[in-house]
Amino acid sequence: MKKFLIILMLIIPAGVFFHLNSPPRGMQHEKFRVQYGRSLRAVAADLKKSNLIRDENFFVLLSYLTGRNNIRAGTYEFFPDAGAVRVLAKLARGQVLTCRVTIPEGFNIFQIAKALSSAGITDEEEFLRYCGDRDFLASLSITSPSAEGCLFPDTYVFPEGSDPRDIINAMFRRMRHILEENGSPWAQPGTFRILILASLVEKEARLPEERVYVSSVFHNRLRRGMRLDCDPTVRYSVRKFTGRITRRDLESDSPYNTYRKKGLPPTPICSPGRASIAAALRPARSPYLYFVARNDGSHYFSKSLREHNRAVRYYQKGEKNGFTDTGNQLKP
C-alpha cells in the first residue's frame, strides 16, 4: 500500500505537468506580440487569452522555477504543437520575428517612417513622434528639434513591432560611427552643420563625381553671405517631395526656404550617405557659385550669375542664346 501511494504521488504531479504543458485544445498558428514593459503575469494572461497556453499560473510558476522570468518584447510566432515549456523558451530567448529593410540615401524621416511601417517594423506615427521628442532626443545627445539627418541610411534587420526608440537609437549609432570614420565625431563643434550641408549635397548631386563640386558651391556661397537657393530645401519646407515646385512654394516663409532665408536650414533635410558626408567635409576647391541641371543627371557649374542665367535659359527653356557647354566642368 505504501509503495502504491509513493507511485501515485509521482504519477499525479507528472500527469498534471503533462496536461498543463500540452498545447491547448484548438490552438492555432499565430503571431503573438509582447509589448514593452509588460509584466510576466500580464504576458501569461495574454497568452491564455490567445489560447497559446492552458494555464497562466502554471506558466508563471514554470518561468520562475526554470529561471526564465525575463521575457523580451517583440513579435513571436507559435505553432499548434508548442507546449508551455516551448512557448516560454522562445520568449525567454527572445526569438522574435525580424524584418530586413533598406533605407535609401536621401530619405527624410517621413519617408523612413513609411518604409518602416510598410515592412511591419514599427508604427509610422509613433516613429515620427519620437523623431521630434526633445527629451528622448536629448537622451541620445541630439540637441536638434528633430532626428532628421541623424539617422544613417543603410540596410537594417529589426524585430517586427519594434519600439521606434530602439530603431532611432540604432540608426543614430550608425550615423555617429560613420561621422567618426570621416574624422568628425558627433561631439565635435560643427558636426551638425556638416550633416546639414551633406543633406543638401545628397539631394542635389546625382553623379558621384559631382558631389564635391556641389559641396564647393554651397561652401562658397556661405562664405560670401549669399542665399543657397536650394530647391530641395523648398520641397522640405512645404513637404512636397515629388512633383514640380511652384512659385507659391518658393514664397514659403519657412526657415527651410533657402530662397528667402540666408544660411543653412535649421536641420538636415534628409539622411545623407557616406559619400555626401565626405563631400561636405572635403569640398573641391573651385570658383563655382551656381549650378543648373543639364537634364541628364549632370550639372553645369558657373562662376558668375550672367553665365548661370545663360545656362538656365539654355537647359531649362531651350533658348539658343550662343551658350557653349565646354563639358569640362569638373576641372575648373
Describe the structure.
It is built from 14 helices and six strands. It has 332 residues and is mainly alpha-helical. The chain has four domains: 17-93, Dna Ligase, domain 1 (2-Layer Sandwich), CATH 3.30.1490.480; 98-181, Dna Ligase, domain 1; 191-290, no CATH class; 291-332, no CATH class. The strands form three sheets. Strands 1-2 form a two-stranded antiparallel ribbon. The N and C termini lie far apart (105 Å).
Which consecutive residue ranges, at least 5 long each, have pLDDT under 50?
1-12
Amount of helix: 40-55%
**Sequence of strands across the biggest β-sheet:** 1-2
What's the quaternary structure here? single chain
Shape: elongated
Give a quick account of the main beta sheet: strands, pairing sense, barrel closure: 2 strands, antiparallel
Measured by DSSP, the beta-strand proportion falls in: 5-15%
Count of DSSP strands: 6
- In angstroms, what separates the terminal alpha carbons? 105 Å
Using only CA atoms, what is the Rg?
A: 29 Å
The sequence of SSEs as H and E is HEHHEHEHHHEHHHHHHEEH
Provide the domain count: 4
| Number of helical segments with 4 or more residues | 14
- Compute the average pLDDT: 88
The secondary-structure class comes to mainly alpha
